Amino acid sequence: MTKAMAATLVLCFCVLATVASGAEAAANSISSCLLSNGVRNFSLPASPSFAALVRSSIRNLRFALPSVGKPAAIVLPNSKKDLQAAIRCARSSSLAIRARSGGHSYEGLSYTTENHVPFAVIDLMNLRRVRVDSRSGTAWVEAGATLGELYLALGKYSNLSSSSSSLAFSSGSCSTVGVGGIISGGGFGLISRKFALAADNVLDAVLVGPNGDAFTRESMGEDVFWAIRGGGGGSWGAVYAWKLQLVHVPRNITVFSLGRTGPVQHIAKLMHKWQYVGPYLPDEFYVSVFIPTGTSSNGNLSMSFTGQALVPKQHAMSTLNQTFPELALDESDLSEVSWVESTAKFAGLDTVNDLANRRFEQGSYSKSKSDYVRSPISMRDVVEIIRYLSNGPQQGSIQLDPYGGAMARLDSGAIPFPHRAGNLYSIQYGVSWQPSDNDRADEYIGWLRSFYAFMGSYVSKDPRAAYVNYLDLDLGTNDWTNATDGARNGSVIHARSWGESYFSKNFDRLVRAKTKIDPGNVFNNAQSIPPLPQH
Ligand SMILES: Cc1cc2nc3c(=O)[nH]c(=O)nc-3n(C[C@H](O)[C@H](O)[C@H](O)COP(=O)(O)OP(=O)(O)OC[C@H]3O[C@@H](n4cnc5c(N)ncnc54)[C@H](O)[C@@H]3O)c2cc1C
Ligand SMILES: *[C@@H]1O[C@H](CO)[C@@H](O)[C@H](O)[C@H]1NC(C)=O
Ligand SMILES: *[C@@H]1O[C@H](CO)[C@@H](O)[C@H](O)[C@H]1NC(C)=O
Ligand SMILES: *[C@@H]1O[C@H](CO)[C@@H](O)[C@H](O)[C@H]1NC(C)=O
Ligand SMILES: *[C@@H]1O[C@H](CO)[C@@H](O)[C@H](O)[C@H]1NC(C)=O
Ligand SMILES: *[C@@H]1O[C@H](CO)[C@@H](O)[C@H](O)[C@H]1NC(C)=O
Ligand SMILES: *[C@@H]1O[C@H](CO)[C@@H](O)[C@H](O)[C@H]1NC(C)=O
Ligand SMILES: *[C@@H]1O[C@H](CO)[C@@H](O)[C@H](O)[C@H]1NC(C)=O
């Protein structure tokens, strides 16, 4: 060993030792603060259960790798008061705050920081009560509840009532997604063409702000209340609970899942026609398209349609037969189920009681991106798109979600989510892979990026729009370097480059709301809304 090498080694040890003792000091500091404030449920890196707890809701395994920085503490509040103390203690220990509800952030933003900034995860898994008020048709739900827990509570409630309709809530289809994250970013689902987004159906909220104070709609003010309904999670504070407007759906609704296979031309023809059907069906209907990459050995591709209609089977059959004869739907493809059964079915669960299960099957490694389509893509171009997909790696896909209906009737400034009238459908691009295949991660992500570049000429432009719940750090990042980077000159201009993709003209109002509720930028992440500098 040369002298220089030895010196380098010594230097490395020193740096590691400093980092370790810094993290340890922060852990000790937050630990004593939490204890003296009566917060009992938290875990530190030295605890044997710490790693499993951090990992418990990591959906995207890319952010569970050893190279990704781990928190200095994970706190599990049992009450609003605990949540307030957790925020105050993280701050007094100079730790950045990451609130986590369902852990389904596509880019892991609820449990990671940029530039190895030390942080605490405040995980809301123990805050998951749902309180339904049938008379007013509303519910208070704690932010740590999953969609499955919320849907099951509504299903149980509807079961007990003798009403001719069922209570439902308009939100996403995956049962383990947290209401804390999904509502913060909008929340699109199978009844959004009828009842709009989850965030459009929020009546009130309790938000714990940067000083640990709790605000309601009235005390936070309308700008902030506007911002938290779709302006993205992690920028405003920690939402403790949402008050939701529930909706009434028929006790029986109609559902179907349909697979089709064929050569490029056949798949292209169905996708091309769908563009003229999906966004224009009556509001009660949702028909989406999913097309995986690759072909079978004979060169055929596959695609599938997911359908739901808030009408009886016969009615659904006749509407779909008339508007989309190419689908060649058969009456036996359709079934009638209750709304809550349909949520279990489309979440891929066997029974409604599985909706209560917060644990998902092993997560996978994945990368996603999104787009909006404002005018139908021509048949010739659809053929090229399908050809591109047919040559992709296994486990790539596109999902097309129909807009129109109530989605198009709301004003693009009603809440921060701007993708209203004029948007026919969203595209979600995804690629995922198993742990055994992780050495090919760069290849898979590279394919997704090339495909996205290829799609550029067919989708919205100036800016090319994206959905904040389908978070995509390729669009740009804040690059914060410490727990609260304050308000820096230049942050807003920088954030505008992706902020306008997510929020269009609503971006500036979000910056104003941020400056009001969190001028010191305590709640930040790689794509959070920055505050204006204070003079
Ligand atoms: C399998 C899967 C299916 C999906 N399906 C849909 C769908 O059908 N429709 C749809 O619209 N989206 C869907 N999404 C996207 C989903 O809405 C987002 O990933 C959402 O952010 C997840 O919320 P979460 O609470 O589970 O995630 P988390 O990772 O816990 O949080 C996401 C972000 O919100 C912040 N946050 C979390 N809790 C709070 C809180 N209480 N207060 C303030 N900020 C908070 C986090 O800090 C983070 O920045 C899906 C995602 C996955 C992985
Ligand atoms: C903390 O919460 C977790 C999750 O609910 C639970 O399993 C654990 O028992 C709790 N620990 C304490 C000390 O309350
Ligand atoms: C509703 O009641 C039926 C019949 O008792 C039962 O099978 C079903 O699981 C219940 N659904 C819910 C959501 O509780
Ligand atoms: C391929 O698709 C065509 C057209 O849909 C179909 O007739 C044929 O049976 C398919 N081949 C296989 C092996 O699935
Ligand atoms: C579907 O439409 C065709 C032609 O319009 C008609 O002949 C057929 O009876 C319809 N089928 C159903 C089940 O409505
Ligand atoms: C609801 O659907 C079930 C299952 O298909 C069926 O048995 C029942 O008769 C339907 N109820 C009504 C009111 O249509
Ligand atoms: C935090 O960031 C600001 C702005 O970049 C910098 O001035 C400050 O020194 C940093 N603080 C710490 C503790 O690193
Ligand atoms: C930001 O810029 C303004 C002038 O444009 C200046 O007065 C102020 O000091 C700057 N603030 C910081 C934090 O650099």
Automatic annotation (TrEMBL):
This is FAD-binding PCMH-type domain-containing protein. Transmembrane segments: none annotated. PANTHER family: OS08G0158400 PROTEIN. It comes from Zizania palustris. It is found in: Secreted, Extracellular space. InterPro entries: BBE, FAD-bd_PCMH, Oxid_FAD_bind_N, Oxy_OxRdtase_FAD_BS. It holds the Pfam family FAD_binding_4. Keywords: FAD, Flavoprotein, Glycoprotein, Oxidoreductase, Signal. GO terms for cellular component: extracellular region. The keyword Transmembrane helix does not apply. Residues 67-249 form the FAD-binding PCMH-type domain. One of its GO terms (molecular function) is oxidoreductase activity. The keyword Glycoprotein applies. Belongs to the oxygen-dependent FAD-linked oxidoreductase family.
